[in-house]
Design brief:
mainly beta, 8 strands, 209 residues, 8-stranded antiparallel barrel
Length: 209
Amino acid sequence: MRCATIWSIACMLIGQLIVDKAMAQTDAPDAENVFKVNIIAPGVSYEKRIGYRQTLVAGAYLAPDFAFSYSSNFGSNFYFNLVPGIEAAYRYYYNGKRRTDKGYTTSLNNMNYFSFVYIPSITDVAISDAYYDETRKRLVHNIGIAWGFQRNYKNRISLDLYIGPGCRIGKSTDVNASGQYYSKIGIAPTIISNITMGLWLNKRRDSVN
């Protein structure tokens, strides 16, 4: 229920914001393809334009995987690990005209965006209310809606950050009234966030700040 509420509120707010921005910025600059090498989370990413101010992003990297939980019965539980990861996302850039009017560049998608993000991970972190870690690592799906921004500078430095509400979905271990363990599909609210710093590898141009 908590995840459903988060999704409903986020969808309504983001939907309204996108409609408002689209109506107010009919002549906004368009998006373009961007290829980057990431340093903070080592890896590569490619952003492909699929429509007016819209892109698809795919990336592969070595990502931090962490979680914190607390239970009055079992105490606190902190998990951290570095694991190979992949990410897929849809982005809608919305403030291109405003940046242009202020004299800022929009080249290489130097704009703010709303995004639907999907990040699969192989982990043994608990996602149930009982906080039982899994005995074996399994696939967990991280899905969310985020706000973010991208800035690519003339010296080729690239900065990309997003954050928003999401859900973890995957196998979960719980215990019934008889004290027996059983498996079920667990769904838990989470925060979808990422910050990457690296280098953009497109052909150099003077229009990039």
